[in-house]
Amino acid sequence: MCEAVFIASSEAESKAYDEADGTVEAPALNGGINGKEGNAVKLAEPEAKVPEAPPPSTAGLPFSATNNRPEENGFYGAPIPANEKERHETLCACQILDSAPDPRFDDITKLLCSIFRVPIAIVSLVDTDRQWFKSAQGLPGVTETSRATSFCAWTLLPKNPEVLIVTDALEDERFMENPLVTGAPHIRFYAGAPLVTSNGMRLGSLCVIDKEPRHLDAEQLMVLANFAEVVVREIEKDIARKEETDRLRSQTSGLIGAMDCFSEGIMLVNTDYEEWNILFVNDAWSRVTGFSREEGLGKPVFKLFEIPGTSHEAAMAQYRGVVKKHTSFTIDLLRNTPDGRSFRYVTNFRPASTDALDNNKPIGIPGFAEWPSGQADQYYFVTVTEKAMMSLEEPMLPGQEPKWAPKQVGGAAKRHPWEDVELGPLIGQGSFGKVYRGVWNGAPVAVKIIHMANDSSMIPVANDNAADPDFVAGAGLASATPSSTMRGALEAMHSVDLGHPNIVQTFKSTQRAVQSGQEGRQSISSPDQESCGRQFTETWLVLEYCDKGNLQDAVDRGVFNRHRPESIDGSASGALKHTCNVTAVRETAMEIASALAYLHNINILHGDLSGGNILLTSSSKDTRKFTCKVADFGLSRVLSQEAISTGTFGTVTHMPPELLTTGRLSKSVDVYAFGVLLWEMCTGKRPWAGLMQMQVIFHVTIQNKSLEFPPTVPEELSSIGAQCMSKDPANRPTMKEVVAALEKLEVAQ
Q1: pLDDT by residue (tens digit) across 651-675?
Q2: Is 36 among the annotated ligand-binding positions?
Q3: What is the pLDDT of residues 577-635, one digit of tens each?
Q4: How far are the Cα atoms of 179, 564, 572, 574, 576 from residue 569, in angstroms, in the given order?
Q5: Which of 78, 258, 358, 628 is most buried, judged by most C-beta within 10 A?
Q6: Per-domain boundaries in the chain
Q7: Rounded CA separation 282/265 (Å)
Q8: How far apart are CA 476 and CA 579, in angstroms?
């Protein structure tokens, strides 16, 4: 969600075009909502230049002005992300490009080849015009390829970091003509987890590749995502070693996440082995434990460390019981050195297939990946920290667990509101919360946890009928919670009572009050450290699970269209021939339009319609093999009048001019966003790709630009989209009229 920027335009301002360098001079803007001065935020300083085509950081990159995508011999790569300048600055600050080979990274790629049984694994960093490999297994002599052919560049695009999965490149519009697919190394399968730095920038990805189509389940992808975090820690650790802490804070935009991890040893263990063999250790593990890397790799944990205070057999019996539950736990271990010294360690075991190694920057796992499967349950990431020696002979109090006993991580902090709901891997996250896989009474569900700071000291009163005394029923919160936390409650109340086949159903909801930093009551949604001591409200929603991902991913994969090089006498001309699957577009558009018409009929405005908020679920009713479901009502409104004023809005690329300039919010905002979705499906492109948020606002409001449908799209379909994206909201059709127009299109087809 973004704060609204209210701007005003004039004909004189819109004509301020500098033909010499192809940029637009952005004037100082005044005015605001209802024409009142003093409320406006300046779009840019008078001397600022707003580029029309690629961001400045893409200078020198082979690039298509119409697609904003790097190009090589007629093949178009991933669009340039809007934050490319800042992202590339972060990459350069890491000082890793063109560095020497390093066994720390080679250990990881070799291990991934073994775990996933793939021939190729790469640590890939996306530079301006290339992707460079810090470590690569299975590609002898290859250290880089062009950015245009990079699979990893696509991991830079999603709003929030998530794993990219390509099960068969020959069936994916983005990659089927890629030279790395049609030629060596003949990629068919790809899975890449983005490398996310402590300041939120993505450097590239850690990926595994196969020459045959295949699938990885959600647990396996979580293992990959956790190893991506290990790679980033190693990269950031090198920066911190080279620079003083204060200088690092000021010059590298907060790239100090690894500073807190220097003393934290990490190992990966396989609990399928009798003594839990060690598969991976980082340098910090060697410093903490005193064992060298060679002494640790491949060795059983309990051959290197002793279990204090009990027999080995008794402890292992209890440890194996905990592992079967597949939960996080801690145990104390002891090391006695030959010279008579003793060292005690706290080891924190976390399932590599379900728990994120770093909760502050989790990586989402696409919803279409299978879960649960149990194929990676044996892998645990273990953090090792030294602990002050204490007497092991102290008497135990009645009911006290022995010191060697495994202790569940989190305690009450990980308590769920419902005993019949099990949480799984993270699917994704947004401004206010996260969405997890889940199982409810044996059925797959999605569990959404919305985390909101309270505006006042008001706390919901516990409902006696709630499953947990910290939680209250979601339907009766209007009089008990402060206004800011009502956003989560409104989402629950809206969707629980909605009954439409193309709207994601909410099965149940509840809320609880939490205080960040309060021992034993810390929220599972993990507020940042700056929020410690503040009061929060969590809203928990159990939602219908959609197993086919979202509409944005389907558009990217080419479900609705194809682009092929045109040939003249058998040779490629460089131009792309576009074909649109009108039937698939019409069926999908009809489902979305029907859901919106239903919402508008009961005066509910969605407010943030975008491809990421349209989920797909399996269906056999037509050749698409999916059905659309409108989701995410976090910015929805109940309209009691034709239009209201607002200071917030959703996805900028899908917002109409009147909302961006005056904050006017009405049902026609959803209509405009629907038109953008229709354009995406018809073209297979992302709207305003590569432009930063303020550049999009400038193009839509000052330059009065619009998204245009290509001539290959049937006029009946493109005219519907063009009308929906009309600059004047009065000229846009209602969603009921859109449904009628799409029905006529079906007859025409």
Answers
A1: 899 999 999 999 889 999 999 999 9
A2: no
A3: 668 899 999 999 999 999 999 999 999 899 999 999 999 999 999 999 999 999 988 77
A4: 21, 15, 9, 13, 16
A5: 628
A6: 3-58, 84-251, 263-393+401-409, 410-545, 550-566+573-748
A7: 6
A8: 51
